[in-house]
Structure formats: C-alpha cells, structure tokens
Design a protein that fits this description.
Shape: globular
Structural class: alpha+beta
Distance between the termini: 34 Å
Number of helices: 5
C-alpha cells in the first residue's frame, strides 16, 4: 500500500468548504469522486486544512492510500481530467506510509485581500473583500505586529471553537498595499476556526480609526471573542500553502 500526497488549488466560491457534508458540494467531495473514477474504488481522503465555505486555496494538502501502480507524479494529471475547472491538483508525490499532514511540524500561510477603492471591481468580486472607506495601512501594519509571537488567540476564534487550547504561534503578520489591493499575510504554526478572518476584520477596524493599533494587546489579553472585530467575508481569504519540516527559522 502506498501513500500519495496531493497539493490542491481551488476557487472556493461555489463550495461549502473543504470537508464533505450533505448540504452542498465540497472540495473534498469532488476529489473523492475523481479518485473513485481513476481508481475504481472508494478511497479515504484526508486534508491538511478544512477551509471554510467560500475560502480559496493555492496549496492545500491531501493524502490517500492506494495499491494502484499509477506513478505518484502522474496522479495529478489523471485526477485533473475528472475534476471541475475550479479545482486543480498542482502536483502529486509519494510519502512514507506513516506521513500525515496534520501531525507534521509546519508553517501555514494565508492571505486576506481587501479591495479598497471607491467602487467595486467586478473582476475581483470573487477573491477580494470590497471595502469603500479609506484604510490607514500604516496603522493596520502596526496593529498586525502585535499579533506576532506565541499568544492565546481565544479573542480571535469563533465561539464554536472545539480545540483544547487556543495558543498558537504567528511567525509573521504583514500588511501591504499595491494599487487598490491591501493584502494581510499571516504565517503561523496553525490557526483556529475563523481566526484569520477575525484578524482581518479587526485590522480593518484599525484601518478606519475605530480602534488603535495598541488595542490588539488588550484584545489578546481579554481572551474574549466579543472584544475583537467582526469576521471578514470568506471570499477575501486564500490559503497560500503549507511548508512542512523545521519551522524554527
């Protein structure tokens, strides 16, 4: 039995998230159907990150076990023939039988993109969050710096969080603007449910002047979801990728 790893990119607009469910199409569901077609058997698939409805990805990771003799690097080509245009396997390879994406040290990187201009741009409606009020990028940048390091992120997690601890390490949190696009880029050891979207919603409030950059310290200390800003819309969020291995640097 071999274990195959897939790097999956997708536009999450029409999906109810990664994980298979009964209330609509999911990315995992589409991958499962494609695997069934290619392998002629029901195959269990495991993803590294269960992205929410409407969230995009350039590099989510999934694994499955098979006794197929298809070369590992050819699975991406075989599966892409059965996948819809908004899900594409970027590459496939073989990993050790005990390798699991959720049990490895890793860095996950997300970007939240804000279209900050007077009027919407219809060509960016699916991958950015339109916000018409001018945002102070420098203040947002200052606020973002307070999120770096190891903290209890209870204030930046959904009230439906079920994990035993909210302590996470953020290696970097940056805010940059190019033309009309403000990009919040967050790299960390892992993220809580809705964490990046709540960070984005809070930084937007800093950008409008409704909060000061230093308020981030108080919000972290409070460990109370009510103290942070709103959850920004899913369409602006993209998982950039996951790097496995030594995360000490």
């Amino acid at each position: 039995m071999r274990r195959i790893r897939l790097r999956v990119a997708y536009d999450g607009t029409r999906y109810c998230g990664w994980q298979m469910q009964n209330n609509g199409p999911t990315v995992e569901g589409e991958l499962h159907k494609a695997l069934t077609q290619v392998l002629g058997a029901d195959v269990a698939l495991t993803g590294a990150s269960r992205t929410d409805a409407g969230v995009h990805s350039l590099g989510n990771i999934a694994i499955f076990d098979t006794d197929s003799r298809i070369p590992a690097d050819k699975f991406c080509y075989a599966l892409n023939q059965w996948l819809p245009d908004d899900i594409i396997i970027q590459e496939s390879d073989e990993v050790p039988p005990n390798w699991h994406p959720r049990k490895q040290k890793s860095r996950k990187t997300y970007e939240y993109r804000i279209l900050n201009r007077h009027m919407p741009d219809p060509t960016r409606r699916l991958d950015t969050h339109f916000y018409y009020r001018p945002l102070d990028v420098e203040k947002m940048r200052q606020a973002a710096s307070y999120l770096e390091g190891e903290h209890d992120f209870t204030s930046f997690a959904s009230v439906h969080m079920t994990v035993p601890t909210a302590v996470r390490t953020i290696y970097s949190c940056t805010v940059e603007k190019k033309d009309d696009i403000i990009t919040i880029r967050v790299c960390g050891s892992g993220f809580l449910y809705n964490m990046v979207r709540i960070i984005a919603g809070t930084l937007i409030e800093v950008g409008t002047g409704a909060r000061e950059p230093e308020d981030i310290l108080r919000i972290l200390e409070a460990k109370d979801r009510e103290e942070a800003g709103p959850t920004a819309p899913a369409r602006g969020l993209t998982m950039i990728g996951i790097v496995f291995g030594d995360v000490s640097q």
